[in-house]
Amino acid sequence: MNMFSTRKSEPPPPPVTPSQPNGASVSSAAGGLLSRGVSIKGTVKFSNELLIDGEVEGAIDSTGTLTVGEHASIRGEIRSKSVTVRGTIEGDIFATERCELQACCTVQGDIEAPRLIVDENATFRGSAKVTPKS
User: Fold this and answer.
1) What is this structure's pTM?
2) Whose CB has fewer CB within 10 Å in the chain, the N or C terminal residue?
């Protein structure tokens, strides 16, 4: 029986970086996600980016970019730098830079933004105030 092994010690394996199914790395600087099936009652606040694909009942207050996913349902006022809508919103939207209503979205409420983009297949019931920044 040998007391000492003649095998060389192997270096530890390299650290594993989380990746998506397509092989792309996941960045910790990426925005937040409120996924489908998640429901929140109350105020949502964030500063960079957020994708909501679940349900929110309450105000959304941000200095960043909000994307409302195609499965999302939001009931409440939205205040953000930029808002892109693919889902359903019942409430007013106040954007300091831009608001975009994409195909198949539904917005019931007023919109105030310096830039407003509305796809021809979007549903919008409310008034729009488009005043460029001075």
Assistant:
1) 0.77
2) N
Query: Any residues with CB less than 8 A from the CB of 12 and at least 6 apart, and which?
Result: none
Residue whose structure tokens are 């970019």 = 65
Residue found by looking up tokens 């608001």 in the block = 99
- The C-alpha R_g of the chain, in whole angstroms, comes to 22
Q: How far apart are CA 98 and CA 72, in angstroms?
A: 19
Half-sphere exposure of 124 (CA within 13 A, CB side): 21
How is the chain split into domains, by residue range?
Answer: 32-126
Locus of tokens 């489908």: 36
Q: How many CA atoms lie within 13 A of 69 on its CB side?
A: 17
pLDDT in tens, 10-69: 554 444 434 444 333 333 345 899 999 999 999 999 999 999 999 999 999 999 999 999
The whole-number pLDDT of residue 10 equals 52
